[in-house]
Amino acid sequence: MPLNFLGAVLTEGTSIVPYWKQVKTITPYVLGASAIKYWASGGANKWERNLHGKVYIVTGSTSQGMGTSAILDLARRGAQLILLTRNLDEWTIDWCNDIREQSGNELIYLEECDLSDLLDVRNFATTWLNNSPPRRLDGILVMSGEMEPCLFSKRKSSIDGLELQIATNFAGVFHLLDLMKPSFKAQPPDRDVRIIVTTCLWQSMGRIDVEDPLWQNRKFDGSLKYFATSKLQLSLCMLELQRRLMRSINEEKKGKDTNTLSEHGANVSVTLVQPGIMRSNSLRRIISNGSIILLIFLYCIILYPLLWLFTKSGRRGAENIIYAVMTPELEPVNRTDLEKVKYIVDCEESKLIRKEFQDEELQKHLYDKTASDILELEKAMAKKRPMKKKANYTDNSMKVDKDKVSKERASNTGSSKNSTNIKKTNVSTKGKNQINESNLSQNSSSVRKPKKRLNRRLLINSLTLN
């Protein structure tokens, strides 16, 4: 049918085409819009790689867009995913079960780890590292991000007193990767370990304070500056992390095999990924400024046609993450400069423009100062926590003593058997209190039994994946 129609148009002319004038007028605009949409969508991953048996720790996976699309793609390829989530609520559990059903992959686990809480991050990393032999790890995918409304915003603080965006986007991610360095070094030389960290265009607006990288002493003057700075400083620290991983591994191997010294540590690579401007929760929050009225009228009704044309979907943005996982350019045999960090934009390698990315001395100073400030902050918070725990324990012990006294008074003429039962009851009560306190110290959990299956699951991982 189309061939007959085209043949008739060629022989008889365009006069036989219905509404030819309207079609002729609209066609250039349609072609132009299609070209813009194709350009705005960016590149797509074309590489394939066998991910069966590979283990990845993922942050920011629960975002409805890039995060969910990326882990769904990886899960369908057979990867085992350990998803760090801030809370283990019913929605998150249902979401995880849905991902398992869609991908047909049961090796997807939820672990509770709030990146804005430095103690939570340390507890997770300590639990992961506390195993012999070392657990298998093929990479960490950092897709998490916290962005607050820009206009008329107020400072939000984390549990450690840091500004929430600095705590989540910079301090928490830095702390996690810095603590996980022993796990990176412990992987065998033939294992391709990839650390993939997302950044954004806003980092070009960030400011660097080497003497106060966590901005603890800075007066709050707008959330956008904090967000941009958190992304910029994290990117700079990732460049230094790559160099430290290479040099530390080489120093450990020095003298053992001098002929292949340059190859040691080549299996660990750090990659920065800029997924582009997406129709994400962050963009909606910027446009609506946190107002549901502006979200409905300004974003959904007025601006959405333009946003659809000039921005990416979350699925298209996830192509950059998949590319960084799949591309053979990051394989040890294809890397020429082992200390260089790759910067991926639209599924292609790009260059970091700001001059700070060429200043290794600045990056080293920023890394050292950030690590020391986080350590000092952890010590300061540790002094406050035992006081609260001790007060709670005193209250519990007082309740147990009151129960004991009341029971003894009630059994004035009781037999020795009854008194024995009272003692057993008191002992069991104290035991329950101790168990409850120990359960509160656990930080990772399974989907169905959040507080009891962390160590068992990680033990299973260590036995089956190495």
TrEMBL record:
**PANTHER family recorded:** PHOSPHATIDYLINOSITOL-GLYCAN BIOSYNTHESIS CLASS F PROTEIN (PTHR43157:SF31), PHOSPHATIDYLINOSITOL-GLYCAN BIOSYNTHESIS CLASS F PROTEIN-RELATED (PTHR43157)
Q: Does the keyword Membrane apply?
A: yes
An MF annotation (GO) of this entry:
oxidoreductase activity
Q: Can the keyword Transmembrane be found in this entry's annotation?
A: yes
InterPro entries attached to this UniProt entry:
NAD(P)-bd_dom_sf, SDR_fam
Assigned keywords, A-Z: Membrane, Oxidoreductase, Transmembrane, Transmembrane helix
Task: Please state what the protein is called.
Answer: Ketoreductase (KR) domain-containing protein
Q: Where is the composition biased (Basic and acidic residues)?
A: 398-410
Stretches of Low complexity bias are at 457-466
The record's SUPFAM superfamilies line, in alphabetical order, gives: NAD(P)-binding Rossmann-fold domains (SSF51735)
State the encoding gene.
TBLA0B09720
Which Gene3D superfamilies does the entry link to? NAD(P)-binding Rossmann-like Domain
Q: Where is the composition biased (Polar residues)?
A: 411-447
